[in-house]
């Protein structure tokens, strides 16, 4: 009898070992989730494994999960909804981070912030989050053709910094000098590196003037009757909306011209 009990015990242990109660979702040894044994891992992006481990070791790893219960026949839609939920979690996290960190808020606002676009931070966050990388997807059977669908995304601070810098490169900001007597543009540069111009910009912003204009079919539209409007015509700006900071001297007009992006 004792031998039979021992044999049965060994068999039970073997069955337990063969059919574990859990599945581990890990990246390069970093466990992100412990899943039920019957979970089906649909996607696991190993290309981010090294980066996840780096962030984990620096204690800067943040992952966000979204989940939806749905019928299997609507699997694609369910994963899409779960992705949106995960990104909403990331958006809330990043929005709070930007709001509470002055340096990060200034970095996000960037050049736009210097022209009064401080509300633009939420747009930056939303645009970044919408392109955030899905690193894992899995589903858990619930019975009767129902599954619980899960999606995981993560926050990479370096990727966010790169996104902000790339966005700054896409800004239409110009540095212009105009000879008032000759009504001739002597310098017209698209600014690629704002830091090279920051000191002069801050000086002009402090002691100069500002104006908002729109050019439509070559005509300047402005609520303000600014004396430099007739000079702006000589710059030859294309149609669009502009915010301008300028300093007028006796013979020279210096302008920083920001063209608003089309919405």
Model description:
The protein has 263 residues and is of the alpha+beta class. The chain has two domains: 150 residues, no CATH class; 89 residues. Helix content is 39%, strand content 35%. The chain contains eight helices and twelve strands. A six-stranded antiparallel beta sheet has the order 8-7-12-11-9-10. β7 and β8 form a beta hairpin. α3 packs across α4 and α3 packs antiparallel against α5. The chain is elongated. The termini are far apart. About 3% of the residues have low confidence.
As laid out across the biggest beta sheet, the strand order is 8-7-12-11-9-10
Mean pLDDT score, rounded? 86
Helical region count?
A: 8
The overall strand count is 12
Spatial extent as radius of gyration: 29 Å
What structural class do helix, strand and pairing data support? alpha+beta
Measured by DSSP, the beta-strand proportion falls in 25-35%
Sheet having the most strands? 6 strands, antiparallel
Q: Segments where pLDDT lies below 50 for 5+ residues?
A: 11-17
- Our measurement of the CA-to-CA distance between the termini, rounded to an integer number of angstroms, reads 82 Å
Helix content: 25-40%
Structural shape: elongated
SSE order: HEEEHEHHHEEHEEHEEHEE
Give the domain tally: 2
């Amino acid at each position: 009898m004792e031998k039979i009990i021992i044999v049965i015990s060994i068999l039970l242990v073997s069955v337990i070992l063969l059919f574990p109660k859990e599945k581990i979702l890990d990246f390069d040894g970093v466990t992100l989730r412990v899943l039920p044994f019957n979970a089906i891992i649909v996607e696991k992006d190993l290309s981010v494994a090294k980066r996840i481990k780096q962030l984990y070791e620096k204690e800067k790893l943040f992952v966000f999960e979204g989940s939806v219960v749905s019928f299997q026949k609507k699997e694609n839609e369910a994963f899409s909804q779960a992705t949106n939920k995960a990104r909403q979690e990331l958006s809330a996290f990043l929005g709070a981070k930007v709001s509470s960190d002055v340096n990060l808020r200034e970095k996000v606002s960037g050049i736009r912030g210097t022209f009064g676009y401080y509300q633009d931070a939420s747009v930056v966050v939303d645009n970044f989050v919408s392109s955030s990388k899905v690193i894992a997807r899995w589903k858990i059977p619930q019975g009767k053709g129902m599954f619980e669908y899960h999606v995981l995304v993560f926050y990479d601070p370096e990727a966010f910094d790169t996104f902000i810098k790339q966005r700054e490169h896409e800004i239409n900001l110009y540095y212009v000098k105009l000879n008032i007597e000759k009504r001739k543009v002597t310098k017209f540069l698209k600014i690629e590196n704002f830091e090279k111009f920051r000191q002069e910009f801050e000086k002009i912003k402090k002691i100069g003037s500002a104006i908002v204009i729109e050019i439509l079919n070559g005509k300047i539209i402005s609520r303000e009757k600014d004396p430099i409007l007739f000079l702006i015509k000589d710059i030859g700006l294309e149609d669009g909306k502009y915010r301008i900071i300028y300093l007028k001297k006796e013979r020279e007009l210096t302008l920083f011209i920001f063209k608003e992006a089309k919405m």
